[in-house]
Specification:
The chain has 174 residues and is of the alpha+beta class. Helices cover 29% and strands 32% of the residues.
């Protein structure tokens, strides 16, 4: 579920949890402030009473997103803005840096955030967060498809509002 809404950061976090509440209704789960949440060893939250239902939320300036799945999952959303080359040097593989650097000037920011959100969705699905060496999770694009050598993963990506926002989803099938 994706929601485009201008609100402050604290409100976006609460809004993302409202999205989660709505998504969990289809599983007949009443998610509220009393719902028992447990955390994995790296801090990834899960539903104590529903270990087979997995979820993840994300929010950024002007957008909130949520996924609920039968598989470990991660979601990341970002507003496309000017990327920071220092982040790319630290988190992207050489091949990914070339993709961004060789792109037309009007596509560089979008490509950066397409790659970045895929990496974030992946590490959120793993439950490791950014402690994972992001430059080793490599992505590219071919004929509109996401290309990666990561095994057992399914990725989806959405560009919404005429490319103003990027949302990436990862599900890990074990």
């Amino acid at each position: 579920m994706i929601s485009i809404k201008d609100m402050d950061k604290r409100e976006l976090h609460a809004h993302a949890h409202r999205l989660l509440r709505e998504c969990l209704r289809s599983y007949s789960i009443d998610y509220n402030e009393k719902t028992q949440i447990i955390k994995g060893k790296m801090g990834k939250p899960s539903l104590a009473l529903f270990p087979d239902i997995h979820y993840n939320i994300s929010h950024a300036e002007g957008i909130a997103a949520c996924i609920v799945s039968d598989f470990e999952c991660g979601i990341d959303c970002e507003r496309v803005r000017e990327y920071r080359p220092n982040v790319m040097k630290r988190a992207f593989s050489e091949k990914e840096r070339e993709i961004v650097e060789n792109a037309n000037e009007d596509k560089k920011n979008e490509l950066f955030f397409r790659l970045w959100t895929l990496k974030e969705a992946y590490v959120k699905a793993l439950g490791t967060g950014i402690s994972y060496p992001l430059n080793t999770a490599e992505f590219s694009f071919r004929n509109g498809d996401i290309v990666t050598e990561l095994q057992g993963c399914r990725f989806r990506q959405y560009l919404v509002c005429n490319g103003k926002f990027v949302i990436s989803v990862c599900e890990i099938k074990h």
